[in-house]
């Protein structure tokens, strides 16, 4: 058949139409596309397919020949994926191989290879999965807890670790008000707020019934019409922080009060005034109705050395005073109508006195701060008691004869006699002074000794 026959014209037209269709598909495809012959040579490629063509020509994409062979054997569309190495990392591509029937004049089947670069999608998906896992891990290991409340005002989600000893199952489907102390005092309540809340402190109940301070932030959930549909947020238990702050604040207050008491003691020279000031300042600083300071006398035991306030001796306290020793601690006693604190004062591991303070029974009970502060005061009073005792010993040594214990000449003639004369004058009474001189008494001293004399 000649080239000019109608049959040849039809074959030529079919080839042209087939080539135009392939060219149209290649040009309109948004990613890399190739037309590959059965012998793996590239018949055509669009602009983005030039790189893929070069790699295929160099034999660096072994998956494409395999997919073409499978598609050619089954004459069905084949799919697969390939990973290519790039300068900025791996490139992930999905491949589709479409067998094309041989057109007029073609002896072999050709194949349309369509690729889709899903590197960005894959990386975004991996980043999303990693981000979700990171968030999940942080939520689970964090001391903070996240939560969500639905439109019914009940918990619909709580961190897996639970809250304040409660498991998520114990909280979900329950109202937040059931776990908040004095929930009616919060307006609005953090968990039910219709506005953004930030760093709000609330007091909640733990699973053991204790109080816990929690700080939290939340934001409301609304539908497209702005209707409140719940809230979600995050909270943190700051009870230990608040307890540390309270302990530090109490320590500072105790330090200030103790400095005030110590100053009142040091500002006095007279031991008697020193203890009286200590009794007054201690009673005022601790909000007590009265204060007694005792000294330990070698013969009489504890004797009252200073007093302040309502001078009512709580009888019940006397029993504890008699039982005090160097190892005793501060004791709280209820002695109608008083609340009493009794504590010993020591000096160099020796009991040398005691402090007793009291207040009305209808006042609040003594808390730990009172015990600590009174113990600190007792340490200072112990020193003051010792100074007072030393002062009396020094005065006694300066006024008496060391052998007889009688007043010496200076104390008798310069202190004692003028004082007694003044009292007699005030009382309008008379008196007599006897002066005895014993002859030869020296013999007694010489024979029997001065101590016997």
Describe this structure in words.
The protein has 453 residues and is of the alpha+beta class. It folds into four domains: 6-118, PAS domain (Beta-Lactamase), CATH 3.30.450; 142-237, 2-Layer Sandwich (Beta-Lactamase); 270-397, 2-Layer Sandwich (Beta-Lactamase); 407-453, no CATH class. Helices cover 40% and strands 26% of the residues. It contains eleven helices and 15 strands. It has helices at residues 6-28, 49-57, 63-74, 119-141, 168-171, 239-266, 271-285, 315-323, 368-399, 409-427, 442-448, and strands at residues 33-36, 42-45, 78-86, 89-100, 110-117, 145-149, 155-158, 197-205, 211-222, 228-237, 290-297, 301-309, 331-335, 338-347, 350-360. A five-stranded antiparallel sheet has the order 2-1-5-4-3, with helices on both faces. Strands 7-6-10-9-8 form a five-stranded antiparallel sheet, covered by helices on one side. A five-stranded antiparallel sheet has the order 12-11-15-14-13. The radius of gyration is 51 Å and the shape is rod-shaped. The model is unreliable at 1-13 (pLDDT under 50).
Brief digest:
This protein has 453 residues and is α+β, with helices and mostly antiparallel strands. It has helices at residues 6-28, 49-57, 63-74, 119-141, 168-171, 239-266, 271-285, 315-323, 368-399, 409-427, 442-448, and strands at 33-36, 42-45, 78-86, 89-100, 110-117, 145-149, 155-158, 197-205, 211-222, 228-237, 290-297, 301-309, 331-335, 338-347, 350-360.
């Amino acid at each position: 058949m000649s080239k000019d026959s109608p049959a040849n014209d039809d074959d030529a037209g079919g080839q042209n139409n087939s080539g135009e269709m392939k060219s149209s598909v290649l040009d309109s495809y948004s990613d890399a596309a190739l037309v590959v012959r059965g012998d793996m040579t590239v018949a055509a490629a669009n602009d983005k397919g030039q790189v893929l063509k070069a790699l295929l020509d160099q034999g660096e994409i072994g998956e494409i020949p395999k997919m073409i062979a499978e598609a050619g054997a089954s004459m069905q569309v084949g799919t697969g994926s390939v990973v290519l190495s790039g300068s900025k990392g791996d490139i992930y591509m999905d491949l589709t191989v479409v067998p094309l029937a041989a057109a007029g004049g073609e002896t072999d089947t050709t194949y349309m290879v369509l690729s889709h670069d899903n590197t960005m999608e894959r990386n975004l998906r991996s980043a999303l999965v990693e981000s979700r896992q990171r968030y999940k891990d942080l939520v689970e290991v964090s001391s903070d807890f996240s939560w969500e409340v639905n439109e019914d005002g009940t918990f619909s989600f709580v961190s897996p670790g639970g809250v304040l000893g409660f498991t998520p199952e114990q909280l979900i489907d329950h109202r937040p008000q059931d776990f908040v102390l004095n929930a009616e005092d919060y307006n609005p309540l953090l968990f039910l707020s219709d506005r953004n809340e930030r760093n709000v402190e609330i007091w909640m109940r733990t699973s053991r019934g204790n109080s816990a301070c929690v700080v939290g932030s939340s934001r409301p959930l609304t539908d497209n019409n702005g209707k409140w549909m719940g809230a979600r947020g995050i909270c943190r238990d700051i009870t230990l922080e608040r307890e540390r702050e309270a302990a530090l604040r109490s320590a500072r207050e105790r330090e200030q009060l103790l400095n005030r008491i110590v100053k009142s003691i040091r500002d006095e020279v007279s031991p008697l005034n020193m203890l009286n000031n200590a009794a007054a300042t201690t009673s005022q600083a601790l909000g007590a109705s009265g204060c007694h300071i005792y000294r330990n006398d070698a013969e009489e035991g504890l004797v009252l050395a200073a007093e302040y306030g309502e001078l009512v001796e709580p009888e019940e306290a006397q029993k504890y005073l008699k039982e005090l020793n160097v190892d005793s601690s501060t004791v709280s006693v209820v002695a109608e109508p008083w609340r009493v604190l009794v504590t010993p004062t020591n000096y160099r591991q020796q009991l040398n006195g005691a402090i007793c303070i009291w207040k009305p029974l209808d006042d609040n009970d003594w808390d730990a701060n009172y015990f600590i502060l009174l113990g600190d005061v007792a340490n200072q009073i112990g020193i003051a008691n010792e100074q007072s005792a030393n002062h009396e010993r020094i005065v006694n040594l300066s006024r008496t004869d060391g052998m007889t214990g009688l007043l010496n000449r200076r104390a008798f003639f310069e202190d004692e006699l003028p004082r007694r004369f003044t009292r007699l004058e005030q009382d309008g009474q008379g008196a007599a002074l006897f002066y005895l001189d014993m002859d030869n008494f020296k013999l007694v001293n010489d024979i029997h000794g001065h101590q016997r004399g």
